[in-house]
Write a structure and sequence with these properties.
The complex is a heterotrimer of chains A (320), B (294) and C (431). Chain A contains 14 helices and two strands. Chain A has helices spanning 2-14, 20-58, 76-86, 91-123, 128-140, 143-153, 160-167, 182-207, 211-219, 224-235, 237-252, 256-261, 276-286, 290-319, and strands spanning 61-62, 71-72. Chain A has a two-stranded antiparallel sheet with strand order 1-2. In chain A, a hairpin with an 8-residue loop joins strand 1 (61-62) and strand 2. With 431 residues, chain C is of the alpha/beta class. In chain C, the strands form two sheets. In chain C, strands 6, 7, 8, 9, 10, 11, 13 and 14 form an eight-stranded mixed β-sheet that branches. The model of chain C has no long low-confidence stretch (mean pLDDT 86). The chains are: A mainly alpha (320), B mainly alpha (294), C alpha/beta (431).
């Protein structure tokens, strides 16, 4: 209600013409605002808010779409999740551990690499557009196409990477076929594809830094390293925080690459590449165990929420 | 692009040092960029080169095809549903882009230019949907599609694939930012001339926001074109799949026919690459503005 | 001219009559829907069967949906079920039956139309093994079994004139048929002897053939306990994994997997089902191969794995008496001896009906004969969750191959997971 009054007052203040005409105009504008927003409001309520609540509801049921009616099971799905997370051999635990690896290794690597590339791109003038486009192409390409291209590159004996290793008399590598290498092989593809995005955001961030700062530093005789650590990096802080959060969330949601690059999309070998979202997909749409799958998605949602809240706190602090 | 031609007072130019060590850094940068650029390009060239090889040649290590053939393309275009998947992807992406262009712009305009009770709450409701990952919604969406409020099942229909993306919170947010730049005086003048409220939006606000709407459209189109998890779930029949879903299905069916898989991948990638090369400036601006990932 | 006039009148009347009868008949026609996953040969065969069925039963109209890819099939059924628009008769993999029964999706076959004794005497014995909760829920048109494919040219080049008849011979020949480029090592293989393809049929071979030949059995009598990790299981699994780890006769990592390697003429021995005949015909028609029964155990015993796609009636059909009656008639028709014979000719799967399967021309067929002979000693595993159970053995095998684990330990680990799965399943059925 407070909003409403403030809104009215603001509207009153901005209007210059007093009198009856103005009042009806305000009312008319309010009416039109609601008319214009009607479809979007219905859309968000029905397509976004309601399904969110529905997901919570499903997680309390043993939900099987084939069954005529669904059984309420209370917190049983959450209990199963806790049990699975504490059991060494469970696939669910492997999914969470792997997802953590994707985030904790992938995100910093991608960040540092894209910053380096952005800095180098910032350094040069000729060919900048071409280079920028080159780094950007993989980002707009379909993930499925990219994944299959890399799956082909990683093939034993006939894949390009092993052919090159052989040409340099280096030992052949199993890549996607080895439980020790598969996760990193997939991670490399994700980083490769996502680099362009980081580069563009960093380039935009670098543009925002006023050149007077650099001129002053040059006058003071600061070395390049000093300039980077004392000017560029601190001023890029908001960009970095923003990217950290965005990339973390995107790594938390890893799915298509694993589906396309593991044998029959099973997240193998030995569950070494499976992720939370892949688990959700297989539980919900292959085993038709939608109640438990919803429980998994809610856990994922909670993690993403925490990451976002931490970001909000960090950004407010950095701008203070 | 020569920096000396730019007026000095422009603060947004990235700063470039003019010191003597410059050359060394530049040379190093070029070298590194060349190397990294190679790793970006090689997978694409390998994909395209494989797509022109006859099957036996995929077992040999030659980079370029020895007996280049277009038979793979003929096969994929006639013997598979790929043309149909193309069409489906275009229909779905156009459908959602038209809707997004209209509703996001309209909602952004209302949030920027109108005062009304509950505005803040409604805006927060829109934005809060950004917090919820798609993965959490796909299961409820699936149940909703199977059991729609009206009419038969939405599964395997264009509407069923497109409906979750018909209005986007990021788009509304972006357009609100942009619409705030539309001068109130223009709108008020229009009101005095008796232009209807929708007319104000359609004839004054929209023409002034065309660049932003353009960026939104291109960006939304790309996002829909590459969308995977929901179309995967929303389609079962082969003829209703979108390109990425069809490609995944086709590739896992033809597990060892790398010449065909690479042909399918090339066909799905090349037209998009052309669009991206043409519109790259807008796309990059759009990404910088929205900061959204596909 | 007069005669002509009467004749025209007669024609008009006749036309009118047919129309009226046609309209009346139209009123009595029951429409039922039948679904199976997409596989071209199955589609063609079923279209023929439906045509015959509709000709014999003008009061029934069958809608045939076979456009759904295998991977999406269960998904699509799940999408149709709550909306009440799915099939009345549906073809499912036999291993999925418990899950569909649990969800209340299938109804038991009506006892008066399909008596248990009739099912048990009419069909191959493995159909009886899929009795679940004391009921029959589905019956097949055709069944498949595993047999040994061998590359005739490679065997001749290595000096063999017959395929291996026993497990010992099989091992010996697999080694002799492997060719390396340099040191014996997996990555130096240019021709594979035998590839244990766990993601393919090797887990079935282990569970239902090797294990029994070593004196074990996969599950306890009532299918409630896992027994494939017994001492016999251990030896059988070691026999299987040794091909790759010790004798290095091949690996699924090479040449796009064991099946592709055989089709492309890069592997000599291969264990697979009769459905592979079609893929060889389309993938490499020039391949000079033969088929033999699976090698016998040390005690001379023969076992193989059998499986089948099977047709059931859904609860949707049950809701409407006319549809149920029509579904029963349709089901009877597509599981008849005639249907079985049509199926073997069109699809290459073996007739499920004992009468059709014992046909001498089938047994003498050089390619289909060995599969047919195997039906006598074929076992269909009782699966509660086919995908998971398959994954358990794949993982156990990968633990040995990639993790260097001992076969017995790997099997025990996997058995623990499988026992949990069985316990959960049976706990839900104890009430």
């Amino acid at each position: 209600m407070a909003d409403m009054i403030v809104g009215e007052q603001k509207a009153n203040r901005t209007e210059t013409q007093p009198g009856l005409f103005h009042l009806t105009l305000t009312r008319r504008k309010v009416m039109w605002a609601y008319i214009f927003l009607a479809i979007p409001i219905i859309f968000f309520l029905y397509i976004r808010i309601y399904p969110t609540l529905f997901a919570f509801q499903m997680s309390l049921y043993d939900w099987n779409p084939l069954a005529a009616e669904q059984h309420f099971v209370g917190l049983e799905n959450y209990q199963t999740l806790v049990e699975e997370l504490s059991s060494d051999k469970s696939v669910t635990r492997a999914a969470f551990v792997n997802t953590w690896h994707y985030v904790i290794i992938g995100m910093p690597l991608q960040l540092v690499l894209s910053l380096l590339i952005a800095l180098m791109l910032n350094e040069i003038r000729a060919l900048q557009t071409i280079f920028r486009l080159t780094f950007f192409l993989p980002f707009v390409t379909s993930t499925i196409a990219v994944s299959w291209v890399f799956r082909w590159l990683y093939q034993p004996q006939i894949g390009l990477l092993n052919v090159m290793l052989k040409a340099f008399s280096l030992p052949q590598q199993p890549f996607l076929r080895s439980p020790d290498q598969a996760l990193y092989s997939i991670l490399a593809v994700i980083i490769w594809q996502g680099l362009g995005f980081g580069v563009i955001i960093f380039l935009a961030g670098l543009k925002q830094i006023p050149r007077t700062y650099y001129e002053a530093a040059e006058v003071d005789g600061a070395s390049r390293c000093q300039t980077f650590w004392n000017i560029t990096l601190p001023l890029l802080n908001p960009t970095i925080v923003y990217l950290v959060v965005l990339q973390s969330i995107s790594f938390l949601r890893t799915f298509a690459q694993v589906l396309a690059m593991s044998n029959q999309g099973d997240g193998g070998p030995l569950n070494s590449t499976t992720t939370v979202v892949l688990r959700v997909y297989r539980e919900a749409f292959q085993r038709l165990n939608m109640g438990y799958a919803s429980t998994l998605t809610i856990t994922l949602f909670a993690i993403i929420l925490i990451v976002t809240i931490v970001q909000l706190r960090l950004t407010t602090r950095s701008t203070e | 692009m020569d920096i000396t031609q730019q007026p000095d007072h422009l603060p947004m130019r990235p700063y470039r040092s003019k010191s003597r060590t410059d050359f060394r850094y530049k040379a190093l940068s070029y070298l590194c960029l060349m190397l990294i650029g190679m790793t970006m390009i090689v997978p694409f060239t390998w994909m395209i080169s494989t797509s022109f090889k006859p099957k036996p040649e995929t077992r040999r290590a030659n980079f370029f095809p020895q007996e280049a053939t277009t038979e793979n393309y003929a096969y994929v275009m006639t013997e598979t549903e790929l043309p149909r998947w193309y069409l489906n992807s275009i229909i779905v992406a156009v459908m959602s882009t038209v809707s997004v262009a209209f509703f996001d712009t309209l909602a952004g305009y209302v949030f920027a230019k109108y005062q009304f009770p509950g505005k803040k709450i409604i805006f927060i409701m829109f934005l809060s949907s950004l917090m919820v990952p798609t993965e959490m919604l796909v299961i409820p969406w699936f149940i909703m599609s199977v059991h729609p409020p009206i009419g038969p099942t939405w599964v395997d229909t264009y509407w069923g694939i497109a409906f979750p993306g018909l209005i986007t919170a990021t788009g509304v947010f972006l357009m609100r930012q942009f619409m705030q730049g539309v001068p109130d005086e223009l709108l008020d003048a229009g009101r005095i001339d008796g232009v209807s409220e929708f007319g104000l939006f359609w004839r004054i606000a929209v023409p002034l926001s065309l660049p932003a709407i353009g960026a939104l459209c291109i960006f939304n189109f790309l996002g829909n074109w590459n969308a995977f998890i929901w179309p995967l779930i929303a389609t079962s029949a082969k003829e209703m799949m979108t390109l990425p879903v069809g490609l995944q299905f086709f590739s896992s069916e033809n597990g060892s026919d790398w010449h065909l898989i690479m042909t399918g991948a090339s066909l799905s990638v090349i037209p998009l690459l052309i669009i991206v090369i043409i519109f790259q400036r807008y796309i990059i601006e759009g990404i910088t503005l929205t900061g959204l990932k596909g | 001219m007069k005669a002509n006039k009467y004749f025209s009148l007669f024609i008009v009347l006749a036309l009118l009559a047919t129309l009226t009868i046609g309209i009346q008949a139209q009123d009595d026609v029951v429409t039922i829907e039948y679904w199976q996953y997409f596989f071209e040969a199955r589609q063609t065969a079923m279209n023929q069967l439906i045509e015959q069925f509709e000709a014999e039963n003008p009061d029934i109209d069958v809608i045939h949906n076979s456009e759904i890819p295998y991977d999406n099939f269960r998904d699509e059924i799940a999408a149709s079920a709550p909306a009440g628009v799915g099939p009345d008769v549906v073809t499912l993999f036999y291993g999925w039956i418990p899950a569909f029964v649990d969800a209340g999706y299938l109804i038991p076959l009506p006892e008066e139309d399909f008596p248990a004794e009739w099912i048990e005497s009419y069909f191959s014995p493995m159909v009886a093994e899929s009795k679940f909760l004391d009921e029959y829920w589905a019956i097949p048109t055709a069944v498949r079994s595993l047999a040994l494919f061998y590359n005739i040219d490679m065997l001749e080049a290595a000096g063999y004139d017959a395929p291996p008849a026993t497990l010992d011979e099989f091992l010996e020949m697999a080694q002799a048929l492997t060719i390396y480029d340099g040191e014996p090592d997996i990555l130096n293989i240019v021709q594979e002897g035998y590839v244990p393809e766990m993601t393919g049929q090797a887990h079935h071979w282990f569970r239902e053939a090797l294990l029994r030949q070593y004196g074990g059995q996969p599950f306890g009598e009532d299918n409630r306990t896992v027994e494939w990790n017994s001492e016999a299981g251990c030896q059988a699994f070691k026999y299987l994994s040794d091909f790759e780890t010790d004798y290095m006769t091949g690996s699924n990592d090479l040449f796009d997997g064991g099946t592709q390697a055989f089709i492309n003429g890069q592997a000599a021995l291969h264990i697979d089902g009769s459905f592979r005949i079609g893929s060889i015909a389309s993938g490499n028609p020039d391949l000079n191969y033969g088929v033999a029964e699976l090698p016998a155990g040390a005690d001379g015993s023969q076992h193989t794995f059998g499986s089948y796609w099977t047709h059931g009636i859904t609860r949707q059909a049950e809701a409407d008496e006319a549809k149920l009656e029509a579904s029963v008639r349709f089901l009877k028709f597509i599981t008849s001896v005639e249907a079985g014979i049509l199926w073997v000719n069109e699809v290459g799967e073996l007739p499920a009906q004992l009468e059709a399967a014992s046909d001498p021309t089938l047994l003498e067929d050089p390619i289909l004969g060995p599969f047919s002979a195997g039906l006598e000693y074929a076992h269909a595993t009782f699966f509660v969750d086919e995908t998971q159970q398959r994954q358990h053995l794949i993982d156990a095998y990968d633990q040995i191959r990639l993790g260097g684990m001992d076969p017995c330990d790997a099997l025990n680990d996997a058995a623990e997971l499988e026992q949990t799965l069985l316990d959960e399943f049976w706990a839900a059925h104890s009430e």
